[in-house]
What we know:
By secondary structure, the protein is mainly α.
Amino acid sequence: xxxxxxxxxTYGLCSALSWGASDFSGGYATRAAGVITVAFLSQTVxxxxxxNLVLLLGAPMAAAGSLLFGALAGLCGAMGLMGLYTGLSKxxxxxxxxxxxxxxxxxxxxxxxxxxxxxxASTLLGFPLAMAAVWLLSSSGGMxxxxxxxxxxxxxxxxxxxxxxxxxxxxxxxGGEGFLWTLLCARAASISMFGLVMLTRGGIPAQSPRQMVLxxxxxxxxxxxxxxxxxxxxxxxxxxxxxxCSLYPGVTIMLACLLLKERLSFRQWGGxxxxxxxxxxxxx
Length: 284
């Protein structure tokens, strides 16, 4: 395997670690604040971090086309979060989370296969195993008949998955040169969308210092995950980067197990095993 492919895989897995830890921090923060509030504030923190990093490093400006793709990525990501949070607020995580996560991995995978051709046979075998891992890790349990028949629930899951999948595609299309500016542009677009929602709800509620620490950690880790994904997609194939970083639910679950003493279900342990098998196949 070429050095660039190895680095791309490493960045993809590190992106999953960052996003998984970000979701854990953000999810814990939403226990005391609304999900839209946490999303808006965490995205703002991430944008401030990116802006300081850009100025500190003197990062080269991205091309106009890259900035446009960055803005589209931000809007798509915000759309995905809105769909996910709307679905989860109804208490139906068992179908929303796994369906959206699998679709988010599937869309860029199919796109890359159409535009870049098929990957190696062993890598291709790892893809369905990785999608099975995402489903098992994300799912909180069996789905009831009511859940399966809810058209609104399915719509929110599809909206979330499509938003995240299109985010991956747009970030990859933006290219790696000047990617910090591209990510900053994405953040500006998502903040604008969430800001409009916050205005309709009467503004931003005050947060305790402890809450702001959790929200800041969420924003910093999410931004780091975005940057790592952008580097993984730039160095390697989009489908491999998207599939690896989509394993982030496993990190969230493991942190909940270690820090909150939550127990993994039988299907989640199956997801852990499937994820490890998928990583081995994709890396071979």
